[in-house]
Amino acid sequence: MSLFLFLILVALVLGIIGFAVHGLFYLLIIGAVVLLADLCYAALRFRRGGRKHRIVR
Fold first, then answer.
1. Using an 8 Å Cβ cutoff, are 11 and 27 in contact?
2. Using CB atoms within 10 A of its CB, is residue 14 exposed (0-12), middle (13-18) or buried (19+)?
3. CB 37 within 8 A of CB 7
4. Closest Cα partner for 36 from 44, 47, 51?
5. pLDDT of 52
6. pLDDT surpasses 80 at 1
7. What pTM, to 2 d.p., does this model score?
8. Which of 1, 17, 31, 57 minimizes the number of CB atoms within 10 Å of its CB?
9. Which residue, among 17, 15, 8, has the nearest Cα to 30 in the 3D structure?
10. DSSP labels for 20-32?
11. Distance between CA 38 and CA 20 in Å, rounded?
């Protein structure tokens, strides 16, 4: 779950920087790609949610 939230934060920061700074539009595109990859990762992870995962201590 922390990886999901971290990738959302990275995508948000890249998107804001890419939108705000003239000439860094490619960062907005990279942020969108990271966001899509993160949503695909979350969909795959939550789809397999029926199995019990072992908690490592």
1. no
2. buried
3. yes
4. 44
5. 62
6. no
7. 0.68
8. 57
9. 15
10. HSTT-HHHHHHHH
11. 23
